[in-house]
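New to this. Please check this protein:
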Amino acid sequence: MAITNIASGETYLIVNSLNYKAVDLPEDQEPSADHEAVVGYTAHGDRTQKWVFEGDAKKGYSIKHAGDGKALVIAGHAEPGAELTTSDDTSARIPWIVNHVKDDLFELQWPAEESLVVELQDDGQFSPGNNLTLANRSEDEKSEERKRQLWVFEENSTGPSLVSIP
């Protein structure tokens, strides 16, 4: 079931509003010493797609993968095109700002730059494995680009209930 408030300590499935792809940490990639790529993959609700939020709405949330506890971070500098990855380096943890946009839609904002938000890349194509990157927030609410920047949070469950996604 989609939610409208994030609770610290809870586990969520994060699903893109454009095409039902969930934030996923695939098991089949070759893990490096510290980082693993985070992608958009067809929502199925398995353990690779579960994320724990710790913190609060004012100071931000550390978002950690429920399976391995690695934090959601970016590779490189905070700029458009920077890819999302995970890290077990506690100093790299980011207090992501989770903005409630409307209804059950949220955006994940980079904390130091209001205009940078998480976006599903490759024009939101329906093939699995699309990269997640930082992008400049689109101001056109009806554009496909903006829909790639909006996310629905599903409570920890056996799978997504995608009926609430526009």
Observations:
- The two ends are 14 Å apart (CA to CA).
- The chain is about 0% helix and 40% strand.
- Residues 11-158 form a domain with the Trefoil (Acidic Fibroblast Growth Factor, subunit A) fold (CATH 2.80.10.50).
